[in-house]
Amino acid sequence: MLKRMNDCIQYIEEHLDQTIDLDELARLSTSSKFHFQRLFLLLTGYTLAEYIRKRRLTLAAQALMNSEVKVIDVALTYGYETPESFSKAFRKAHGVSPSQVKGPGTTLKAFPRISFQISLKGESEMNYKVVEKEAFKVIGKSKRISSVDGRNLKEIPMFWDEVVSEGVIDRICNVAGTDDTVGVCMEFDDQHNEFTYVIGAETVKSQKEFEEKEIPARTWAVFESVGAMPDAIQGVWKRIYSEWFPSTGYEHAGGPELELYPPGNPNDPNYRCEVWIPIQKK
């Protein structure tokens, strides 16, 4: 997996002065566009768009420093339609305008190329189990979420705030007959970079108040998260992709992913929740 991600970085580097095709990156990573972008963010801490922008502005600064090229030419080369938009982004990244690059004592910032590798850090053990689960039903409220430029990172927390503040989550749990809630990513649309996010609860009851989503039968890897939200569970997601998948005989099986939240104080340092990922043998 890490080799495939390094192949993606190589492709990006070779096309920083051209159009970078997300479909090609997904193909190189042998995953969907959504899962590639999510994996990239988990492993690097940057959205794909942020990384590309930072690398382009690094190379733009080098081009301006080492040649007599015009600012407009550099702007167009690295994907900016106008000198004004380029200057704004350049100043934000480097603290100076493009015209000041060759000034005496000018300090610029270089954002280095990323590479992926397995790092043995002596981390604590990861508690997980493999579960075979038949198809089940989740009831709740759903929303179409965009994964463009990491919008899902803002849209999903806002959706949770909305559902909790309006008391919807309490009604869902009452109807479902459980205190456990779930957040589910499903119904991925790679063409439009969207997916459905469901906030709800598992149930076997019939009802008409909320939407119903069928989660197919799968083999699941279930990982325990211990700690205050959201840092603890974000750390688990990162370790799943950077440590667990590369060191096991499993790969992502596609389809829905979910997080299970038992009742409790999510800010408690001992709060426990779970990440469920569909898996299959390589």
UniProtKB/TrEMBL annotation:
What's the domain of life for this entry? Bacteria
**Pfam families xref list:** Cass2, HTH_18
Query: Which keywords, in A-to-Z order, does the entry hold?
Result: DNA-binding, Transcription, Transcription regulation
Q: Which InterPro entries match?
A: AraC_E-bd, Cass2, Homeodomain-like_sf, HTH_AraC, HTH_AraC-typ_CS, MarA-like, Reg_factor_effector_dom_sf, Tscrpt_reg_AraC-type_HTH
Q: Which SMART domains match?
A: AraC_E_bind, HTH_ARAC
Q: Does the keyword Transcription apply?
A: yes
Task: Identify the residues that the record assigns to the HTH araC/xylS-type domain, covering every copy.
Answer: 6-104
Do you know which PROSITE patterns this protein is assigned to? Answer: HTH_ARAC_FAMILY_1, HTH_ARAC_FAMILY_2
Question: By what name is this protein known?
Answer: AraC family transcriptional regulator
Instruction: State the species of origin.
Output: Bacillus spongiae
